[in-house]
Amino acid sequence: MKVIYKIAKSELSMLFYSPVAWLILVIFTFQTSMAFSGLFSDLVVDQAIGNRLWDVTERIYTNYRGLLSQVQQYLYLYIPLLTMGLMSKERNSGSIKLLFSSPITNTQIIIGKYFAMMIYALVLIAIILVYIIFGIFTIKDMDIPYTLSGLLGIYLLTCAYAAIGLFMSSLTSYQVVAAMCTLGVLALLNFVGQIGQDIPFLRDITYWLSIRGRSDELIGGLICSEDVLYFLIVITLFLMLSILKLKGERKKTVRKIAVSRYVGVILIAIFLGYLSSIPALMTFYDATITKQRTLTPNSQEVMKQLKGGLSVTTYVNLLEPNYEAGLPKNMNRDKRLFRQYIRFKPEMEMKYVYYYDKTKNESLDQRYPTLNDQERARELANGLELNFKMFLSPEEIKKQIDLSAEQNRFVRLIERENGQKAFLRIFDDMSKQPSEKEITAAMKRMVVPAIRVAFLAGHGERDIDRKGDREYYVFSQDITYREALINNGFDCYKLFLTQKGKIPENTDILVIADVKTPLAKEELDEIQRYIDKGGNVIIAGEPGRQDIMNPLMVSLGVKFMPGRLVQESENFSQTLVFAKVTREVAKIFPRFNWMLRWNYRVPMLDAVGLDYRTDAGFKVMAWLETDSTGCWNEMETTNFAENKAIFQPDAGEKEQVYTLALALSREIEGKEQRILIMSDADCLSNGEFSMKRRGVNTESPIFPNYAFSWLSYGEYPIDTTRPRSPDTKIYMGLEGIMWMNIGLMGFFPLALAACGIVIWAKRKRK
Asked: Signal peptide location in the record (predicted)?
């Protein structure tokens, strides 16, 4: 150990007595200071102009634009300049012969020199640590472990680069050649992950060998044994190769034996890498304060209940627009979607089935108008350089599974060993892939039965099968829409009571929306029986339907008021009312508090006011209401396209706060019954879910999402919200930016430069 220490000390002396090491430190310091100051200043300015800050630690240090992410992007430029002379200069000066003739082993030489590089890497880390310490004193409740995890990632990456550079330096006596070779190997390790991804056996090897993104998880706050062991294995591999190189020079051996040693070391490294990537052998630590790199508690609870085997089979239709996500070359990337789930269920299997079958794809219709499905699939397979035989024909895939209900789209089938199944879909939005909420909802279906939602039909109600603007298809059972009930743990079906039908006993929620023709007495009685028994209900009204729908709510103590609500607006129709969340409900439900805090409104295109009593045996809570001014119940105007409504108190019109959504609850036989009454049925319509209005914060899926969560007692949709990170403030004003820039971009690098000059001058005098 003493010998290794002396070699390391000697190497550090030569390193810090040379201008190169100091020049790198000064440039690195200035570059990182400039990056940090820019990120920090942006948030200070945001805070100064009144914008709310959030996740300050992540935004400055660890996200894709953060300081640590920027450091890893240009770190590879510095290390080859440091390592190029580690062994090359020994050959140039002839001192390598002295080392070989001395009682120093090859291992001691390599480890000693590498130890010096590890210490230099710590100096680089110390520079970054200055910015973290600065943040500790200026950021409210800074997430320190989060940044330390990132520092670990940067340090391991630097050490890996140094080990590679040391090996390259041992191969040649030319320092420039050693530096170029190091850059070449680093480039190879960055791109090797893209090699052979179409070949099953080679795919996993090259993907593991790739160094690209290896420190991303650590910078992102997740310390995974696989990533840490990857760096340790790579470091050990190149150190062993360096030792073998010196051994070959020191003592000539038969070529076959020398080659076998190199091959053996590489194979051992690959085998250890394989072991480290086995899910059952992995360990994890989430360093973030909000545990954002770990499944939320609700998802973890679902995974605990999924006992026994579990498989996820991805069905990839070559004729469907989203096929590329499941191709063999993207398989490892696709599997990362389930990485957090595999952490809690290591035995989870991932399978892929490839086929072709008819589906909606306008692009193919335009490109190959005269070809049939088989010919189109063959053309695509040839263009993608894939073996057409790997794709099952329509007849062959139907023998395995019928995907017609899924429109033959890209879909995953989650299956337990007991035979329970659930589909997991991708969606027609920017993100495409399912998030934790949708994945957990699909898995939870096999633990907690889906919530059965019955939509009353037969009297002109909103239809869940039709796609017109006023219907309910999108929010209920559109498989391509992320927020649809069917994708979040609900099963929807139509309910006809016109032929003396009964409400099924397993109905969890009954939806009665915009009844256009009067219900028969038998139908009213059946609905009343369901309510009296404690069934959960949504009732959504419309102007002009008061006489038809009010009989439904007599026992509830609620009625739709006459007329229709209008709201003064310069940009929108008067009949469009923007409902706001009440403070009462925001205090009780955190989700609604979020809507209130950010002033999110629920658009209601045709609304009526709700009148209610509090003595009907229910706990009553208003969820949505109008503004206190500018809104009244219009009694006379009917043609709003040609006429403008004018407030007329003499006609019985009142300008006041109107309740637009009302929640009722009561205890029945040990169970809480929940009923939601809404003054507008359009807020759940197809047209509303695709509508964006400028100048108003509206997000149509938010309110129904919360409403159905309440009606299902929080079972579905899955709540994947996390606590807010406490780092929401910076203790520095605009006046501090200048001094920060002077200190970090001026004094800091100049101090290092001065230190280097002093040491270099002392060395020269000696």
From this structure: none
φ and ψ at residue 119, rounded to 5 degrees: -70, -40
The DSSP secondary-structure symbol of 75 reads G
Task: Give pLDDT tens digits for 5-62.
Answer: 888 888 888 888 888 899 999 999 999 999 999 999 999 999 999 999 999 999 999 9
Q: Which two tokens stand for residue 667?
A: 């205890």
Q: ω before 328 within 30° of 0 (cis)?
A: no
What's the CA gap between 574 and 583, in Å, rounded?
A: 25
Four-residue CA torsion sign, 100, 105, 106, 108: negative
Measured over the CA atoms of residue 89, residue 95, residue 97 and residue 99, the dihedral's sign is negative
Q: Which residues pair with 412 in a beta bridge?
A: 314, 424
Q: What is the 3-state secondary structure (H, E, C) of 547-562?
A: HHHHHHHHHHCEEECC
Check the CA dihedral 443-449-453-458 and report its sign.
positive
Interior angle at CA 245, CA 240 and CA 246, nearest 5: 100
In what helix (H) or strand (E) does residue 314 lie, and over which residues does it extend?
strand 310-317
Return the domain boundaries, the chain. 2-288+737-765, 307-425, 450-711
What's the CA gap between 459 and 523, in Å, rounded?
11
**Distance (Å, whole) CA 156 – CA 278:** 21
Phi/psi at 192 (5° precision):
-65, -25
- What distance in Å separates the CA atoms of residue 13 and residue 432, rounded to the nearest whole number? 55
C-alpha–C-alpha distance, residues 127 and 700, integer Å:
48
Position of tokens 């100091």? 22
Which amino acid, residue 140?
A: K
Nearest to 237 by CA among 110, 60, 131: 110
Beta bridge pairs of residue 610 = 560
DSSP 463-477: PSS--STTSSHHHHH
The helix (run of H) or strand (run of E) holding residue 149 is helix 144-171
Return left, alpha or beta for 94; rule: phi > 0 is left, psi -120 to 50 is alpha, else beta: left
**Cis, bond preceding 717 (omega within 30 deg of 0):** yes
Query: What distance lies between CA 158 and its chain's CA centroid?
Result: 28
The Cα–Cα gap between 247 and 106 comes to 6
Contact, 666 vs 618, CB < 8 A? yes
Strands 310-317 and 349-355: parallel
pLDDT digits (tens, 9 = 90+) for 434-477: 999 999 999 999 999 999 999 999 999 999 999 999 999 999 99
The CATH class of 450-711 is alpha beta
Task: Give me the amino acid identity at 98.
Answer: L
Kindly state the DSSP code that residue 449 receives in the 8-state scheme: P
d(CA 36, CA 62): 11
Tokens linked to 598: 């950010």
Q: What is the DSSP string of 287-344?
A: -STT-TTS--HHHHHHHHH--S-EEEEEEEETTSTTGGGGSGGGHHHHHGGGHHHHHH
Structure tokens at 651: 């006609």
User: φ, ψ for residue 41 (rounded to 5)?
Assistant: -65, -40
pTM: 0.91
Pick from 47, 79, 75: which is nearest to 60 by CA?
47
Copy the structure tokens of residue 412: 């995953």
HEC assignment per residue over 155-212: HHHHHHHHHHHHHHHHHCCCHHHHHHHHHHHHHHHHHHHHCCCCCHHHHHHHHHHCCC
Smallest CA-to-CA distance from 653 within 636, 674, 676, 671 is with 636
Strand partners, 602: 579
What's the pLDDT tens digit per position in 564-589?
Answer: 999 988 888 888 899 999 999 988 88
